[in-house]
Design a protein that fits this description.
There is one protein chain. This protein is mostly helical. The protein has a domain of 111 residues. 48% of the residues lie in helices and 10% in strands. It has four helices and three strands. Strands 1-2-3 form a three-stranded antiparallel β-sheet. The longest helix is centred in the N-terminal third of the chain and has 30 residues. It is an enzyme of class 3 (hydrolase). It catalyses: Release of signal peptides from bacterial membrane prolipoproteins. Hydrolyzes -Xaa-Yaa-Zaa-|-(S,diacylglyceryl)Cys-, in which Xaa is hydrophobic (preferably Leu), and Yaa (Ala or Ser) and Zaa (Gly or Ala) have small, neutral side chains. Its main location: membrane. InterPro entries: Peptidase_A8.
Length: 187
């Protein structure tokens, strides 16, 4: 008789949330890298392609800074920040029980890793690489899918925080609002 392995235990909500976080991080990362591969393989740096004129165009640039080219001379700082953020999210992931937080942190992780890959492996050098940006809207920064994932993820985390939903899925107790009469002696 062949030995049987014990049946796997039920998938816990914590494992589901970690899986959701990992799935969204991987999806954001892969989509970002595939679009950057497409842009670098089909466009010349500085080229513009109208998509939905005048609202949207592809405009291929390489950005050494952050949004609006802030910090162009300190590319290595962004490499360190993205590394710290990525490691922190991975370390914190096992504590996440909220689906909303899993989505938000997954998007931030995928976006951070997408741009970190550019910083590490694109020209001009390791850790100082320029990020491929190509989505251009009028009067706005030129960005990529990694940037979009980070912005959406951070916005979701802010919204959850404002609503009092913690990463473990619990809701902060609503504080009772009392109308105190002036001069009642309470501070």
């Amino acid at each position: 008789m062949e030995p049987t392995s014990p049946a796997p235990g039920p998938v816990t909500p914590a494992r589901r949330r970690i899986g959701l976080l990992a799935l969204l991080a991987a999806a954001a990362y892969v989509l970002d890298q595939l679009t950057k591969l497409w842009v670098t393989g089909t466009m010349v740096e500085g080229e513009r392609i109208p998509v939905l004129p005048p609202l949207l165009q592809w405009y291929y640039i390489r950005n050494s800074g952050a949004a609006f080219s802030i910090g162009e001379g300190v590319t290595w700082v962004f490499t360190i920040i993205m590394t710290v953020v990525s490691v922190a999210i991975v370390a914190y992931a096992r504590k996440v029980r909220s689906a909303g937080w899993a989505v938000g942190l997954g998007l931030v992780l995928g976006g951070a890793l997408g741009n970190l890959t550019d910083r590490l492996f694109r020209e001009p050098s390791f850790g100082m690489g320029h990020v491929v940006d190509f989505i251009s809207l009028p009067n706005f920064a030129i960005f990529n899918l990694a940037d979009s994932a980070v912005v959406v993820g951070v916005s979701l985390v802010c919204l959850l925080t404002l609503r009092g939903i913690s990463p473990d899925g619990t809701r902060a107790a609503k504080k009772a609002v009392t109308d105190e009469a002036p001069g009642d002696g309470r501070a």
